[in-house]
Design brief:
single chain, alpha/beta, Rossmann fold, Arc Repressor Mutant, subunit A, 2 domains, four-stranded antiparallel beta sheet, 8 helices, 12 strands, globular
Length: 229
């Protein structure tokens, strides 16, 4: 059965257009036009393969939906919004979105981004083969997971790629531009502050471990370094 994409959009014509393109690409689509209804659907129904989420929704703002979903699921989320300011994009990413698409957008490009996200998540059902890393960490490449002393971190696909890269060379300073290439492989012109947003989320999740881990150091004016005891 083809993968299901949940489209949460309150503009019927745009939603219908996106659903048409998704179906032409071989996906199934489900459309909801209310944020509160969408959140209830994600809590109680079968989880879709990905969510395309508008921001300005009736019932519940799309950013609040994203925040709430991240409390119980790492389903890939693409925010599709008319809010084009950098601060809006950064906020969406900080709340756990995997990508942020500004309206008006190309439906073909949107479908391509969905496909890219799903390719990165495809290995999650494969048999677990952990690769030991320094500092008690282990990487499950197929499942796109990182564990610390058998505690799994609830990482989005972007966060997984960033932390995995830092783990591959602990102690090395990575420039923001180097890490940015891991976030957007299509070399889009986006601010390197996007890296800061994702690192902030990773730090928060590391701090939630028992005992907490605070091992990503900022290198002023350059980027980040992973310090492991």
């Amino acid at each position: 059965m083809s993968e299901l994409i949940l489209v949460v959009e309150d503009e019927p014509k745009l939603a219908a257009l996106v659903c048409d393109y998704l179906q032409a690409a071989g996906f199934r689509s489900e459309w909801l036009d209310d944020g509160r209804v969408a959140l209830a659907r994600l809590k109680t129904g079968a989880m879709p393969a990905a969510v395309l989420l508008d921001v300005m929704l009736p019932g519940l703002d799309g950013l609040e939906v994203c925040r709430a979903v991240r409390a119980f699921s790492d389903v890939p989320i693409v925010i599709c919004s008319a809010r084009v300011e950098e601060l809006d994009r950064l906020l969406g990413l900080e709340l756990g979105a995997d990508d942020y698409v500004c309206k008006p957008f190309s439906p073909r490009e949107l479908v391509a981004r969905v496909k890219a996200l799903l390719r990165r998540a495809q290995g999650r059902l494969a048999p677990v083969a952990l690769v030991p890393m320094a500092g008690g960490f282990a990487v499950d490449e197929a499942g796109q997971r990182i564990l610390w002393r058998e505690q799994a971190l609830a990482l989005t696909p972007v966060e997984f790629r960033l932390l995995r890269r830092l783990l591959q060379q602990p102690g090395r300073v990575f420039e923001r531009t180097q890490l940015l290439d891991l976030i957007h492989e299509d070399f889009r012109d986006v601010s390197d502050r996007v890296v800061d947003s994702h690192v902030k989320n990773i730090r928060r999740k590391l701090a939630g471990l028992a005992p907490p881990q605070t091992c990503i150091a900022s290198v002023y004016g350059v980027g980040y370094r992973l310090d492991l005891a």
